[in-house]
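Structure (tokenized):
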């Protein structure tokens, strides 16, 4: 498990660590106390990845296209 704070991780690094956490938990070879810590870390990593994806989706939604389908800029996203 990485010592890097979750909030400072890139999406890719967080996903890699989340996959490693899931693999460890699925193995069943982790003591209970360690399993709890892994689960908590995994939950934080999952939330971080979801936030990063939502931010990326918002940026993509803001891209506007011209008549030929080429990006011409961005526009505000309507709040949901």
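Design, position by position:
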């Amino acid at each position: 498990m990485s010592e890097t704070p979750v909030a400072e991780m890139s999406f890719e690094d967080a996903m890699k660590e989340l996959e490693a956490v899931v693999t460890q938990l699925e193995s069943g070879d982790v003591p209970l106390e360690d399993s709890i810590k892994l689960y908590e870390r995994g939950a934080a990593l999952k939330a971080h990845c979801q936030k990063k994806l939502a931010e990326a989706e918002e940026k993509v939604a803001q891209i506007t296209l011209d008549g030929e389908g080429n990006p011409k800029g961005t526009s505000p996203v309507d709040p949901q």
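Reviewer-requested clarification: The chain is about 60% helix and 10% strand. The mean pLDDT is 87.
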